């Protein structure tokens, strides 16, 4: 009788609504459950150790269980962030920040192997924190085509029209969507300035303050939210099961973040066939290719975004190029490709 390897997933990443890390966790577990169950026994939200213990979030209770996990099998830590990528999201006093950073590194060092959604992290962890790069793997995020896809049939088009009417949007004016936590690092203020420069375009932002008042820049964002341009709507938290409708409603997905790794929202937009416009970031090297329009712009430099959006929203070569990029991006990060990468990684970590 052949003994099957068990994969036990541990996470509380989806306990805070509106976080991409939570969405990534749900998608990853759904993917491996659907595609790898022929070879592995997969346990979601596990309570006891397995052969491979895939830890998706750095909760203290999981760190406390590491010794038991390692006695039973292998530990695999999922790296969604490092200190540099957290500092601009959460406002903490300097001493508390130092304690949190040290805890994060302690957690990652307790793992037998690490996996990250961005190859840039491997270089950063190895170069700045002394991790062995041979103990870190890159596997990209993934979104299900069942949850995110173009709505082209009559029922889908009707649902999009109904959402447009529900939001009070003008059917003859284009819609630009951003989705993410309300944070300075997400480029919120540049988003508002671009909207002011394009008054005939309707701008929507889906997301809220996932971390409440400790969100970096909370007071500034709150003040701006009370004095929005007339063509901007803040939607608050949108349930994940409704996000495909919003992605299909949008003529362009615009994410002017200053810091991102591999946002689930970009994958969701591409899966829906929606053109994507982002700020050029070093983190996108090796993951985004030419699937999105990548614009080099400093903070407050909105003219390049205005020019790019004008092209994407107008019939012509720029619009076709952006739509084609989204289609190719969705095809590249397809189910079979990402599932195959997970299968290879888990096989390498399975008990001998």
UniProtKB/TrEMBL annotation:
Residues 51-144 form the Glycosyltransferase subfamily 4-like N-terminal domain. Residues 161-327 form the Glycosyl transferase family domain. Keywords: Glycosyltransferase, Transferase. GO terms for molecular function: glycosyltransferase activity. InterPro entries: Glyco_trans_1, Glyco_trans_4-like_N. Gene3D superfamilies: Glycogen Phosphorylase B (3.40.50.2000). SUPFAM superfamilies: UDP-Glycosyltransferase/glycogen phosphorylase. The keyword Transferase applies. It holds the Pfam family Glyco_transf_4. The keyword Protease does not apply. Transmembrane segments: none annotated. Its EC number is 2.4.-.-. This is Glycosyltransferase family 4 protein.
């Amino acid at each position: 009788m052949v003994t099957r390897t068990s994969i036990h997933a541990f996470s509380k990443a989806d306990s805070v609504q509106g976080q991409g890390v939570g969405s990534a966790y749900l998608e990853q577990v759904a993917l491996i459950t659907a595609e790898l169950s022929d070879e592995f026994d997969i346990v979601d939200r596990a309570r006891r150790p397995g052969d491979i213990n895939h830890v998706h979030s750095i909760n203290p209770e999981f760190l406390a269980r590491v010794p038991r996990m390692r006695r039973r099998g292998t530990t695999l830590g999922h790296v969604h962030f490092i200190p540099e990528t957290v500092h601009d999201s959460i406002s903490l006093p300097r001493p508390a920040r130092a304690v949190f950073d040290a805890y994060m590194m302690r957690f990652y060092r307790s793992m037998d192997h690490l996996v990250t959604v961005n190859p840039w992290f491997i270089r950063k962890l190895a170069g700045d924190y002394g991790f062995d790069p041979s103990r870190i793997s890159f596997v990209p995020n993934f979104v299900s085509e069942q949850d995110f896809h173009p709505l082209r049939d009559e029922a889908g088009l009707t649902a999009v029209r109904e959402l447009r009417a529900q939001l009070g949007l003008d059917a003859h004016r284009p819609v630009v969507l951003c989705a993410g936590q309300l944070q300075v690092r997400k480029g919120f203020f540049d988003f508002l300035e671009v909207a002011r420069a394009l008054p005939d375009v309707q701008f929507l932002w889906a997301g809220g303050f996932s971390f409440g008042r400790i969100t970096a820049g909370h007071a500034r964002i709150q003040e701006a939210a009370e004095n929005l341009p007339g063509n901007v709507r803040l939607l608050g938290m949108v349930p994940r099961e409704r996000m495909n409708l919003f992605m299909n409603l949008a003529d362009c997905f615009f994410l002017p973040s200053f810091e991102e790794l591999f946002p689930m929202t970009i994958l969701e937009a591409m899966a829906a066939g929606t053109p994507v416009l982002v700020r050029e970031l070093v983190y996108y090297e090796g993951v985004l290719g030419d699937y999105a329009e990548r614009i080099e712009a400093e903070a407050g430099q909105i003219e390049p975004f205005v020019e790019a959006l004008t092209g994407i929203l107008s019939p012509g070569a720029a619009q076709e190029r952006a739509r084609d990029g989204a289609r190719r991006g969705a095809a590249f990060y397809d189910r079979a490709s990402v599932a195959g990468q997970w299968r290879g990684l888990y096989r390498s970590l399975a008990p001998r």
